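G., the chain you wanted modeled:
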Amino acid sequence: MPTRRKKKGFTLVEIMIVVTLIGFLAMLSVPVFKRIKLRALSATFTSDARLFSEAFQRYAQEAGSFPPSSGPGIIPPGMEEYIDLNDWTKTTSLGGNYRWLNIPSADAQRGRYEIGALQITGATLSLEEMQLIDEWIDDGNIGTGNIIVGGAGSVVFYIVEI
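Predicted structure as C-alpha cells:
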C-alpha cells in the first residue's frame, strides 16, 4: 500500500483569507495615517506662522509700522534681518508660497491702525483639510479668526496685528 505524504504549504483558501485580512487592516489604517500627516503639516504651519508673525511684530515695533506688501516668495523690504531667506522662500507645509500683505485700516475708535497678513498663495490642501487645521489651531471657522481660507482653499491668510 502506498504511503501518503503530507503536503507542506498553504491552501488557496488560507492565502485568500490572509490577503483579505491584510487588505482590511490596511483600509482601516489609511485614514489614521492621513490624519497623522495632516497634524504634522498643521504643526509645521503653526510653527512657521508664529515665527514669521513674531518677526513682523518685532519689525513693526522697531520701525513704527509693518513693512510694505511683497510678492509671493519675496521677503518684504527691511525684513532681511528678521526672516531667514530659506524659510521664507521654501514651499509651505500647506503647499504654495508665503507672501506678505500690509493692510492699512481706519477705525473711528482706534484711529488709524495696520493689520498684516501672512498669505499663502497656491495652497494644495482641500477645504476639508483646511477646516480640520483651522479647528486644531484657530476658531474652527475658515472665514473668521487668525486663519482665513479663500479661493477654494488655495489662498490662506494668517492675520498679524500690532
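The chain has a mean pLDDT of 86.

Shout if anything looks off.
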